[in-house]
Automatic annotation (TrEMBL):
CDD domains: FAR-N_SDR_e, FAR_C. It is found in: Peroxisome membrane. Belongs to the fatty acyl-CoA reductase family. Residues 15-284 form the Thioester reductase (TE) domain. This is Fatty acyl-CoA reductase. It catalyses: 18-methylnonadecanoyl-CoA + 2 NADPH + 2 H(+) = 18-methylnonadecan-1-ol + 2 NADP(+) + CoA; (9Z,12Z)-octadecadienoyl-CoA + 2 NADPH + 2 H(+) = (9Z,12Z)-octadecadien-1-ol + 2 NADP(+) + CoA; eicosanoyl-CoA + 2 NADPH + 2 H(+) = eicosan-1-ol + 2 NADP(+) + CoA; a long-chain fatty acyl-CoA + 2 NADPH + 2 H(+) = a long-chain primary fatty alcohol + 2 NADP(+) + CoA. The gene is FAR2.
Amino acid sequence: MASIAEYYAGKNVLITGATGFMGKVLVEKLLRSCPEVKALYLLVRPKAGQSMQQRVSDMMTCKLFDRVREDNPDFHQKIIPISSELTQPGLAISPEDVEKLTGCIDIVFHCAATIRFDEPLKHALQLNVIATQQLLSLAKQMHHLEAFIHISTAYANCNRKHIDEVIYPPPVEPKKLIESLEWMDDGIVRDITPRLIGDRPNTYTYTKALAEFVVQQEQDKLNIAIIRPSIVGASWQEPFPGWIDNFNGPSGVFIAAGKGILRTMRANNDAVADLIPVDVVINLTLSAGWYTAVHKPKSALVYNCTTGGINPFHWGEIGRYTHHVMSSFKRNPLEQAFRRPNANITSNYLINQYWILVSHKFPALIYDLFLRLSGQKPQMMRIFNRLHKAISLLEYFSSQDWEWNSENLNMLMSQLTPEDRKTFNFDVRQLNWPEYIENYCIGTKKYVLNEDMSDIPAARQHLRKLRNIRYTFNTLLVVFIWRVFIARSQMARNIWYFVVSLCFKFLSYFRASSTLTN
Ligand SMILES: CCCCCCCCCCCCCCCCCC(=O)SCCNC(=O)CCNC(=O)[C@H](O)C(C)(C)COP(=O)(O)OP(=O)(O)OC[C@H]1O[C@@H](n2cnc3c(N)ncnc32)[C@H](O)[C@@H]1OP(=O)(O)O
Ligand SMILES: NC(=O)C1=CN([C@@H]2O[C@H](COP(=O)(O)OP(=O)(O)OC[C@H]3O[C@@H](n4cnc5c(N)ncnc54)[C@H](OP(=O)(O)O)[C@@H]3O)[C@@H](O)[C@H]2O)C=CC1
């Protein structure tokens, strides 16, 4: 039987969401590990004043593609951007492009989605569900399509505690929901959203569950697989450790903690932090593509791509117990930190609120006062308000535990040749968490914030300066409180005079004894 790279040789692959975090890693891995792949057709939209060609060219200059560039400097010739806006009818693909795609595509990877937790329902539905439906319609017209791989999320069914590798009945029939939202204005949709999403925390997980159902409905006509990754983090090994390019999920939290802005967060120390490295997800996705096309399973196979049941790691280990994130940022500090990194995780609401007041709001207030007095625009309170909003949306995922079944993942691993198991490694039993978290933190510094590692001595110096400011501030605060206290209490005054006279006596004794020894 053909190995994975042999299978992809000569194939035309269609990818949505290629400019996104996971899409980029998918494109890179296909080009690097399946060098005989014929062409990658990427559905891309123009954005922020950049044409789609410009965006794809920029993407290929990214450091992520260094290894591919080394192996094959002409790799860009295999990349064919296709203009497409997924929220438009027919995905806004030109008739000529539709003809081209239907005539040549062998396999589709559907990664595009809105992953924002606060996305208005109509837009999330448009992109995550209706666009998926339209892509499936396009896929059905493709003459040689062998597999359709849909990227979902392990949290699509986060209203359940135990999640099997099955597609659960949708919370509502997607067609009915689409029809009824069509005539409603945005205000009405906003008002009824909480009722609609029910026991799910946001429109993202709700629409991803609906999308799974939409995909499942086509399982008789297409060879389908659904990949459900949990919280996708920086790369573990490939193309190099620690690659990450966004502030989503834990990355933003780590950066905020490294910058000394985030000092407290609500999470369950004993709950599993189900992080999954992006290269693992992509290796599984490509393997699933191969298996689906070659073995043509009778119904859509779902692959839960998680770490909790295989190699568990807990929120407490990231924060309080071993201070992985904190110690990493102390060794490799971020530039221009607001305070020294020192974040704590607590599951207690009141304790968290207390620390938010003392360690977030109070310093922000003082800093903004300083900015105001020095004629600058205050900004810290605004930053903290945004941080609190982001964290409140993430806490749902850091405060609970889920159990995911991974039978299909294990089955797939057993189908791989020993060589493919190495090239497309998704065996997370070998993942060393402390090392991974260290590389993750360094990755946020290097690739998200674009900071130079050679600036670390200056960043350390800045942390020392912050420590001295803190000591000075604390001393002044103690003296100030004590002075206020002394002014009001005879007993405090007596204690104060006693301590001062003791110090004075000690000093005189010390001076006398040193004179004697001289
Ligand atoms: C140490 C101890 C602590 C350890 C505990 C760690 C606990 C972590 C818990 C993580 C749980 C994650 C759960 C995820 C589970 C679901 C996984 C998936 O399926 S789906 C995948 C998961 N999906 C997600 O994770 C999506 C979640 N995110 C969201 O939904 C939204 O970002 C938002 C609603 C939170 C904020 O919306 P909004 O306020 O509108 O803000 P925007 O986003 O629009 O950003 C505006 C600008 O700010 C920039 N920037 C951002 N952060 C930072 C930062 N920290 N600094 C600096 N800058 C930052 C940003 O680049 C942007 O710049 P520009 O482009 O304008 O120049
Ligand atoms: N990141 C994570 O932790 C997890 C992600 N997932 C799933 O993985 C997939 C990829 O996620 P990730 O890479 O992190 O997401 P990103 O937000 O990084 O990427 C989203 C991609 O979708 C594209 N896209 C969004 N809207 C449109 C549109 N209207 N028309 C055309 N393209 C559009 C974006 O293009 P553009 O650059 O033009 O905006 C981008 O390429 C998603 O399906 C997500 O649900 C699942 C679990 C966890």
